[in-house]
Amino acid sequence: MKAAVIDTYKQSMPKIKEVPIPDIRSNDVLVKIVAASINPIDIKTKDGGLKMLLSYDMPMIMGSDFAGIITVVGEKVTNFSVGDAVYGRVQKNRIGTFAEYIAVDQGDIALKPKNINFEEAASIPLVGLTSYQTLHDIMQIQPGEKVMIQGGSGGIGTIAIQIAKYLGAYVATTTSANNFDLVNSLGADYPINYQTTNFAEVLKDYDYVFDTRGGATLEDAFKIIKPGGKVVSIAGLPNYRFGKEYGVPLWKRLAFGIATRNLTKLEKQTQASYTFLFMKPSGAQLDILGHLIEAEIIKPVIDRIVPLTKVAEALSYSQSGRATGKIILQMTNDSEKEVRV
Ligand SMILES: NC(=O)c1ccc[n+]([C@@H]2O[C@H](COP(=O)([O-])OP(=O)(O)OC[C@H]3O[C@@H](n4cnc5c(N)ncnc54)[C@H](OP(=O)(O)O)[C@@H]3O)[C@@H](O)[C@H]2O)c1
Q1: What does the alpha-carbon distance between residue 262 and residue 231 come to, in Å, rounded to a whole number?
Q2: Could you write out the DSSP letters of every residue in 30-75?
Q3: Could you report the per-residue pLDDT of 123-152, keeping only the tens digit for each?
Q4: Do 100 and 223 belong together in one domain?
Q5: Is residue 141 a part of any domain in this protein?
Q6: Whose CA is nearest to atom 32 of ligand 1?
Q7: Do the Cβ atoms of 32 and 68 come closer than 8 Å?
Q8: Domain named Enoyl reductase (ER): which ranges (predicted)?
């Protein structure tokens, strides 16, 4: 099969190579991938920027989420059949969705929502699960509560705004002025142009901040949070508590604790909590998101769709930080489109 492969960390960009179709385990299905999505984690992983959390043997096929059709099922697979159209986010130690096939555990996939195509479905798993786990599982947003979402026009922001509105929140979000119409159309109540306005000077008493930026922006979140509120970051630094829950060795946890001393101080000063989230694959939660998509509560937002052969350009565009919604890679060429159901 064709796949986008890197042979070494920090390789400039992946190369398209012929590699063997992966073997499946008894709980796995083999999926012929129709589309996959680009996520900022792809470049971070390639560059070795996440080695404290994730390290891979080389050569490595890139890519974390996908939509496609099951072609083989393992002997213990009970929930899916050959021919099912599915979407999913693979476990972090089994990545490789920028390829024609992926082997994936049946617990990490769900049936593709029927009202969207494969490219739209591929845009959802990683950002949908991250947003759902942040807003629903950790924040446990109740109707009428206020949440600030950083980067409302990005892959995460476009889905997070819609989930937060579904949960009944009042949503403030940062974006450039170009994307005000987009975030308004997704339901945002208070768009803020981050190029001209510091959100910390115009917002106060927020129940939650969903930080997708890290650094000084994350520290500023504590200026607007209520006592008892929650700041959740997916782009800041993991702290000691996260390291313990994630099962990282003690020396790494201590290193996390030292690196996040400022955040611990801010937690104490504001009586708000700081959580770093590293999202987890979940077929069950993709099923929930699928129902919200079929009910037209969540709509995928796609910036562009490009063939696998253009993976390097797609990754560079993601790295530019300017994508509006998701960038999608298509695996099948036109002559294979009849495999779609
Ligand atoms: N920990 C986890 O499990 C996890 C999971 C998913 C993602 N992440 C991380 O979350 C971050 C966001 O991911 P993403 O997929 O949303 O990225 P993305 O799609 O690449 O974000 C692009 C968007 O960011 C906006 N943006 C750029 N600079 C901004 C600023 N200073 N303030 C506000 N918005 C700004 C841009 O809007 P304009 O063009 O309007 O400027 C653009 O629409 C990444 O660092 C990613 O690695 C972590």
Answers
A1: 14
A2: EEEEEEEEE-HHHHHHHTTTTTTT----SSEE---EEEEEEEEE-T
A3: 999 999 999 999 999 999 999 999 999 999
A4: no
A5: yes
A6: 151
A7: yes
A8: 10-329
User: Where are the extended beta strands (E) located within the chain?
Assistant: 2-6, 15-18, 28-38, 60-61, 65-73, 85-89, 101-105, 109-111, 146-149, 170-175, 190-193, 206-211, 225-233, 273-276, 302-307, 326-330
Strand order in the sheet with 15-18: 15-18, 2-6, 60-61
Q: Is the pLDDT of residue 335 over 50?
A: no
How far apart CA 64 and CA 93 sit, in angstroms, is 10
Q: Which of 175, 304, 328 to mutate to test the pocket of ligand 1 (most atoms within 8 A of CB)?
A: 175
Instruction: State the CATH number of the domain containing residue 41.
Output: 3.90.180.10
Order of strands across the sheet that contains 225-233: 190-193, 170-175, 146-149, 206-211, 225-233, 273-276
- Domain range for 195: 127-276
Tens digit of each residue's pLDDT (9 = 90 or more) over 246-256: 899 999 999 99
Instruction: Please report, as a single letter, which amino acid is at residue 157.
Output: G
Domain count of the fold of the chain: 2
Residues having CB within 6 Å of any atom of ligand 1: 39-41, 44, 126-127, 130, 150-151, 153-157, 174-176, 178-179, 194, 212-213, 234-235, 277-279, 318, 321-324
Four-residue CA torsion sign, 191, 196, 199, 203: negative
Among the residue ranges 4-8, 50-54, 231-235, 302-306, the one predicted with the least confidence is: 50-54
CA 176 to chain centre: 21
Question: What is the distance between the alpha carbons of residues 133 and 135, in angstroms, rounded to a whole number?
Answer: 6
